[in-house]
Fold this protein.
Amino acid sequence: MSGTKSVVKAVLVKAVIDVGTNSIKLHLAEKAEGAVRVLKDAHRVTRLGEGLWETGFIAPEPLERSAAAITAFAEEARRSGASEIAAVGTMALREAKNAAALIGRVKETARIDLKVISGDEEARLCRVAVSSGLNLGDGDFVVFDTGGGSTEFVYGRGGTTRRRVSVPVGAVYLTERFFRDDPVAAGSVPEAEAFARKKFSENGIGIEIGGKPDLLIGVGGAVTTLASVRRARMEGTEKTEGETGGGRIHGSLLEYAEVAAQAADYAEKTLALRRAIAGLLPDRADIVLAGACIVKTVMETLDASALTISARGLRHGLMHEMMNGETFR
């Protein structure tokens, strides 16, 4: 018998719960011997922002759906041995007059503190996520992350961030304001795009760095869905990357012509027909047109013929910092 003692490797497990306007996401990862491995990346569509822009309040049903999803994810994280669970809320909770109701409910049922972060902090974490997974190069770049309630932008050059801004334009909001009809009403697409363009202009989004950026990076469910639909069509499969997927989509290019073509296609289809599209998650079918319109308008505003896809977003940025010794507060 050998006298050598077995060495137990120390494993650190942490979790991030991203409470968005459209969906709740769980990102669970472990770190052992300096290497980080993703254990789970999952989402549940709870539509927290449903009706928010009409009333200013989170309605009871979306609140309970979201609290239940957060609680289930927190319990899963604990079962997996997570020593730290960070939960962050974004646009819907920044806007809701009764955000404290969800925060209190989550404290009661999930036993965690849900922190509402600013648009600036959301953009910062997105930038951290992107730079931890993609080479931004030495030129001018713009990162944008479009979600259910807002779109965040980060302007920078090389390793330097020049500007961060959050614009209140998201897929859930645009859907409720412009795309309630099924199929959508004639003229609603140009109206939605004009609205987005105006909001971007009011917030100084455009070619501000002596010309169009050398690199445009898109983050979020709208971008990954567009890429997933393209991939399914090209490969003749039903495979869907989803809101929390990435696969071969990460780091690939998405051309403006593709975005515009998909937006036009979604505008012509009923909701039922959209749900049958290969590569498109059925629970995104109602907001996919709005998402495509936002991405299309961003690319027009920045004079970009293509964007690079990042499958890493806010939750990955926060996890990156947590795994590198930065305590979430």
Observations:
- The chain has two domains: 11-117, 135-311.
- The first strand starts at residue 11 and ends at 19.
- Residues 135-311 form a domain with the Nucleotidyltransferase; domain 5 fold (CATH 3.30.420.150).
- The two ends are 49 Å apart (CA to CA).
